[in-house]
Amino acid sequence: MTSTFNTLKNILVDQYSIDSEMIQPDISLVSLGMDSLTLMEFIFAAEDAFNLRIPEDRLSESLSAMTLQNICDAIDQINQSK
Amino acid sequence: MQSSVWITGQAQLSSMGLTVEEFSAALAHPQSNAQSIEINLSGFDPFVVPIYAANFDSQSIKAPSKLPLDRSSALALGAVHQLIKNTHLNLDELDKSRVGIFWGSGMSGASSLDSATKALYADKRRIRPTSVITSMPNAPAAEISLLLGVHGPCLTYATACASSAVAIGEAMLAIASGRVDIAIVGGSESMLSPGVLASWDALRVIANMKNGAKDACRPFDEQRTGFALGEGAAAFVIESSTHAQKHGRSPVAILSGYATNCDGVHMTNPSPAGQREAMLGALRYANLKPKDISYINAHGTATSAGDLAEAQSITEVFGEKQVPVSSTKSMHGHLLGGGGAVELLVALDVLSTERAPHTVNLKNPDPSMQIDLIQGEPRVLTKPRHVMSNSFAFGGTNAVLIASKP
Question: Kindly report the CA angle at B268 between B267 and B273, in degrees rounded to 5?
């Protein structure tokens, strides 16, 4: 697992009390119990952790399909282009 | 004949305890448990204010929305959890479209907004995405609706110090008119964050600390200097007598009278005429005479103008020293929007125990007031049948509730 994934996983475990066993790259965030508002809070916390802002067009996946890997990819791409 | 509205459940969280039983035990031995809080200012002496804080861990409450909770919402949810447990209310037995939520809060969310703006201005951090949802005044009622999954009216009343009294009264009217069968009612407030405390202090209505925090708030005393803010929530189940009987629930008390009106005179200066008409209106609704009331839980904020106006309006309605009166704000603090609900709970305790609390810290009653103030120790009442709770708000809204023995 990448360090990006592990950081996001820690946020999900610490702030959202999600069972760490359930947290896999390809799992949809909806299936972890998130809705549009909690997802917004989670992305905000992720942005704070990496000190960056993910543009809206990087989050174009529909909510029901969005996975943790989508967010990892967005963060890694922004970091690589810095 | 108006429908009979029963109170069939009660719950509370405040500085007087975290259950109704603890609240009742505290009323049997009235005392002040105010503390002080100090806030430093640049170029001025720090200001120190008395507060009544609830020994409540808001982190213990999980939001049904899974979002961050304002402490007022956490207190509301804590009280409703307790209410459902106390009343063994099985929501699956009810027509959920006919269950209402009527909640009161004067400044719910103000503390969260205070923290959010501090993050932006002082810490140069971004504001959280759901700050608006957390700090909107109807967040407590909305979280309660998610917790219970009910679909009737979900309304929040923001009439400052009268908010939860209005919420309870309007729910009573909704039940009496057949709009809903049953309602979860009450109010919550938590204003003990620096920005909110400083705003109240700037208005010069907070009691001074000359004699320490515990003695600061002195309702109806000639030395009174104002109130101390408190925090908490009180919640009730109220329902039509027909609905309660159908589901096998007994009344704690009958909610027999309510009236609300507005002074329409001044934002903060109270009008004895408006208060008088609100009390008379509640008596008319309950079909009672002034002599039928055995106890009044006064609004009694311990401000100079407020107590004087209330003493005058009570005298105009009831005559000189005709009905025992006390203010319990020196026990639980001023809960603003939560005050009417917590103080109704006091009135219900008086009905059931037949003992009325005295006004804590009342040493030298203001000689210009011609009301029968309970002083020094609780007073045993002879078969009280009906009790009144007054809530008179900034903005001019007056609300009066009457509860009666079943």
Answer: 90
pLDDT tens-digit map of B69-127: 999 999 999 999 999 999 999 999 999 999 999 999 999 999 999 999 999 999 999 99
Q: What is the DSSP letter of B3?
A: P
A34 Cα distance to chain centroid: 11
Q: Flag whether pLDDT at A38 surpasses 60.
A: yes
Q: With contact defined as beta carbons under 8 Å apart, do B293 and B276 qualify? A: no
Rounded to the nearest angstrom, the minimum Cα separation between B66 and chain A is 7
With contact defined as beta carbons under 8 Å apart, do B6 and B77 qualify? no
Beta partners for residue B240, in sequence order: B5
What distance in Å separates the CA atoms of residue B363 and residue B369, rounded to the nearest whole number?
A: 14
Task: Note the Cα B49 to chain centre separation in Å.
Answer: 21
Q: Do A38 and B128 touch (CB under 8 A)?
A: no
Q: Please say whether the beta carbons of B297 and B326 come within 8 A.
A: yes
Any chain B CB within 8 A of the CB of A55? no
- Distance (Å, whole) CA B15 – CA B193: 16
Residue in A37, A52, A56 to test binding to B, most B beta-carbons within 10 Å: A37
Quote the CA–CA distance of B371 and B3 in Å, as a whole number.
Answer: 33
For residue B305, how many other CB atoms are within 10 A of its CB? 13
